[in-house]
Specification:
The chain is mainly beta and 184 residues long. It has helices at residues 2-12, 45-50, 62-67; strands at 29-33, 40-42, 53-58, 88-90, 95-97, 102-109, 114-117, 121-129, 138-140, 144-145, 155-163, 174-183. The strands form three sheets. Strands 6, 7, 8, 9, 10, 11 and 12 form a seven-stranded mixed β-sheet that branches. The protein has a three-stranded antiparallel β-sheet with strand order 2-1-3. Strands 4-5 form a two-stranded antiparallel sheet.
Length: 184
Amino acid sequence: MVGALLLGLGLLSCGPSSAQVCTREYAPLCGQVAGQAAPQTFANRCLLNAAQANLLSTGPCPQTAQMAPPMTGNDEDVHGCKASTGHVWHAELASCVRPWMSSAVTLQVAAQRRPCTGVVNAQCLQVRELAPKKKKWTTLHGSIDGFEPEPGVRYSLRVRKDRLDNPPADAPNLKYTLLKVIQR
């Protein structure tokens, strides 16, 4: 078996037209293969010689870096948001968000709570979004983080609205966080 291995290695180093074994060292060289329009960067001299390329300069070719396609996931904007994952910068929320999961909305909170049932009977806030047109009043099972309403006072709030991927079975699938009180 050792003889076959040595014979195989001997065949690999026979001449320029046969295969060549190269190390994985990285010492980039810019070279050009005859018949190719653009030069290319080779990881080391062995690979340059194996491709029968002419050495143009040491170091990577300057055009290679400009012509290389961007790496997947390497698409961060100035805020660090990755478009390939669906994230965009939201100025009001001052964070990267997926627009279908997080947004800023104006929420009106009714002056009085209403009885609501869930696991236990409770008094829940009544809310409605003031989108392009007013939506119907709905019961908010849960709370608005950072907001403590006074009884008998109607509020208009700017809130962050986040959809939750996998909420518990008895919990709401929306989470509201107070950004600012617009009107009391």
